[in-house]
Structures are given as structure tokens and as C-alpha cells.
């Protein structure tokens, strides 16, 4: 059988898992010595290797590379959603004759649930599509992109042929069955359709439909079976790499909209996922925009301080009926070491588990059906801190208590997160939640633009928008955009959306207009994310009675026309 076919079958197998690791001599030696274990495939940005192994080999790999290999495992992300271009100052920019900015010559990339390419919002007057490429990671019925190892690529030629056909999906079968990606694309780049227009209507698009998470990772992160929109961070990274590669081939600047996020991870910008995004954002011609998340009122974050070695503190979790499985990640700095014990609602105790990196202790309770798993990993690559993982399977209703012990204390601060809304039962919450530090990963990356949401009709903060700062700590969000009752286009027609992903799509369109001004029109040929971030921050609308920056509004409300007005004064 052809080696390429065998490779494709291995990669697509439900027993296979992918991982992301920084290139190193140790890893290269491991590949050389174990050619039948690893299937290294793709290098992102010249330094991050996407590899594939059978999930049964993970423990042996961890033995060879150390417990820091846990940082190589992807995290699971979900969608961030629950008229307004005028409120963001974008319509005024479109209508300003001297600026003449509508996104011409710029690409906008979406890494999401795909797109309904048959919608008139994405079709020119001559019947051709404004979508340059669709990369469908979820199936392999056609040609896989050169240099990539999953999915099918559809070109603008393919899409135009499909649009001329009576049965377009026979030619380009990609569909957005969720609608999230189509909606965000309409906010950022819709052609004028009646009274509706996207932020950058003349920008063209590259669309990535994300592959659903592999069974192994769904089980590892206790993703509820009813949650169908779960994606791996490696899939997001591969999607972004594809967009950047195509933008380079087309010799055009690109703004990228990321409307997915996760509560898993260190939230400090140091993970490989966050590092990859930060490096990509620094390159000229790139503007990477991330949604802050909708987690501030979810009661999914708590924090505490142990003041001295030998001290303790408690994390209490309220659990309702039929809650299923619960995952808690507790993070602390490299200077400290923590250990934990767990007490069930009936008073049954899983005693203090000594903190040794790589420890995995599984305990079936005697008087309850629940099972408790405790895991420790340190030092975690990047910040060098510790993550203590507590899993409660078949959780009994009532209050569960995690006692945190300070084995070594210099700083003493810890943060704990439950999974993203939709990835844990709504009857599970911390009894003492803290809405700060709820910015999701990867919006915690440095150098990207992080967007929260507000209600442009009432001029109030969107209630659920995530609050900063990050664990670095760094100010976050950078700013807020319109994110309540935002109108856009779904596969089944016009509708509305609340959430930071909608606000971020509008921000991405604004970033595309900035790229047109700077690079296409030649006003600032080296323009990249950090300059655009600075211009947008400077132009934000701010309440004179509020101190900025702050953890809710960042530096204020997106106001693109004010950013351009202030740029004339520089």
C-alpha cells in the first residue's frame, strides 16, 4: 500500500493523538531512536513540530522526555458566543472619502466552524466568491494542502465552479453546520447586502474549518458527550499556519479572527500555543485578534494565597444533581510547591497526595460512586510553574472541598479554573468565585489584540465578558467592541449573537482596514499587530469618570475613526 495512504490512515485513526513540541536535539534523537513510535509531520514557523503517536505510547514518551511533555499535549477549546459597526467607528471610516478604506487588498482569516460559501454576503456582483481558500480540516475527500497532513483544500476556482453548479456541495462539500464561523465572517467581511455591511466589505477571505477534537483528548479533558464543538489547540495552530502561508503566497497582509478559547492552561502567555501566536503576531503584515471569553460571571475561577510554608487553604465546589465529571486545574508559580487532599460531600477524604511531578493517583470512594484522580506536573514548560489537576468522576451532589497545602511557599498565590462554559455542567461552580483572571487561552497571549464586549445600546459592559488581568500579569482585555445583540448572517439567514467572539470579528475587520491603510496604501509598510494595537488603544472612547486601563474595559471602547483622527496628529 502507498506510504502516503498508510500515513493518512494512521493520522486519521481514533487511536492516534497529535502533540506540539519545540524542536530540540533531544526530541530529534528520540525520533531517530524510535522511528516506529513517532510520525513527525509538520514544522510550524520553523520551530514547532506537530507530531503523531498512538495514545498508548504517551506514558513511554513522557518517561523519555520528562513530565514537561505534558505541555506538548494540546488543550481543548470551545466557541465564545452566547448594530454595531457604527458604534465602533467603522462606518465613519468606510464613508471617509480621503481614507477610502473598505479592506481592498487585505485578507481576513477565520479559524472556526467553516463558512456557508453560498451566501450572497460572500459573493461578488459577477457571481464569483470573495473566499480565496477554504481549508476543511474535518474531512479528507479531496486534495490535502501542500505541506499539510490533514484535511482538504478548496481554491477560489473550486468555489466559483461550485457556485455555478446546480449542486454546489457536490464540488465543494464543506458546510458550516454550526453557523458560528459564517456569522463571524459576515461581521468582519460581508459584502453590502441591503442595509447590512461587514467591517471590511472589500477584503477577501481564507477560511479554516476546524477538525473536532480526538477521542483521547475529549476523554482526557472530560468533555461532556453532548458538547460537539470541541477543538484542539494544535488544530488552531495548523489553521493559522495555513492562513499565514497562503497570505504569503498571495503577497497580501492578513488579519486573523480567533473566536475560540479555553480555561485550560496557565493563562500567562508562556505555553507553546500562546508563544506561537505571539511570534506570528509580531511579523509585519499580520494582525491577530482574539476574543477575551464570556467567563466573568460563570463562577469558574477562584484564587487564594497561602502565606507560609505549612499553611493551608480550601477550594469549595458546589455540585448539583447529575453533574457528571468535573475537572479542576490549580496553577502556582515556580517558586512554590503545593499538594492537595479532597473531601467529598459525605465527608469521605482522599488524603493529602504528596506532590511529585508525574504523579497520577486514582481513588474510588467507598460510600459514593465517585472516583477522584489527582495529578501533579512541574516544572511546566514556559513559566516553570506547577499545575495540580483534580478530576472528580460521577461527582456526588453537594459541596466538594479541595484542601491546598503549601509545601514550599515564597509567593503563595494559586489560581484554579473549572472548564469553559459548556464544557462542565451548569450546576457546577466555585462557592467563592473571582471574576478577575477569566480571560481565556489563547487571548492571554502577549502581542495579540484581546477584545472584550460591551452593549453599544446601553453603553454598559456585556455582563459575561471575561475580566483581566492575565497571570503574567498583563492588562487584558486591550479594549472592548460591540458584543450584545449584534446582527449578522447565519447559514439559515439573518440573526443576532451576543459574546466576545462577535466583538472580536468586528475588531478583526477594523484591523484589516488598518492593514490596508498601512501596507496596501503604503503609509506604514512595517505595520503588524503591536502597532495596530497601539493605534486602536489610543483611539478608544473612554468615560471621563472611569480610570483606564482596567480589568473590565481595558483601555476603552473601540473607535476606529478616532484612531485615524489621532494618527493625523502624530
Record the SSE blueprint.
Blueprint: H1 3-12, E1 16-22, H2 25-33, E2 39-44, E3 48-54, H3 58-65, E4 76-79, H4 90-95, E5 107-112, E6 131-136, E7 152-155, H5 156-164, H6 180-189, E8 204-209, H7 215-220, E9 231-232, H8 233-250, E10 254-258, E11 260-261, H9 272-281, E12 286-291, E13 301-305, E14 312-319, E15 326-332, E16 337-343, E17 349-353, E18 360-364, E19 371-377, E20 386-393, E21 398-408, E22 413-417, E23 428-430, E24 449-455, E25 460-461, E26 479-482, E27 486-490, E28 493-497, H10 500-520, H11 529-539, H12 560-567
Parallel strand pairs: 5-8, 5-10, 6-8, 10-12, 12-24, 24-26
Antiparallel strand pairs: 1-3, 2-3, 4-9, 4-11, 6-7, 13-22, 14-21, 14-23, 15-20, 15-22, 16-17, 16-21, 18-19, 19-20, 24-25, 27-28
Helix pairs in contact: 6-10, 11-12
Report on this model:
- The chain has 570 residues and is α+β, with helices and mostly antiparallel strands.
- It has three domains: 3-65, 2-Layer Sandwich (Alpha-Beta Plaits); 90-296 and 441-567, Peptidase S8/S53 domain (Rossmann fold, 3-Layer(aba) Sandwich); 301-430, Jelly Rolls (Sandwich), CATH 2.60.120.
- It contains twelve helices and 28 strands.
- Strands 5, 6, 7, 8, 10, 12, 24, 25 and 26 form a nine-stranded mixed beta sheet that branches.
- Strand 2 and strand 3 (48-54) form a beta hairpin.
- Helix 6 packs across helix 10 (500-520) and helix 11 crosses helix 12.
- The longest helix is centred in the last third of the chain and has 21 residues, at 500-520.
- The chain starts with a helix and ends with a helix.
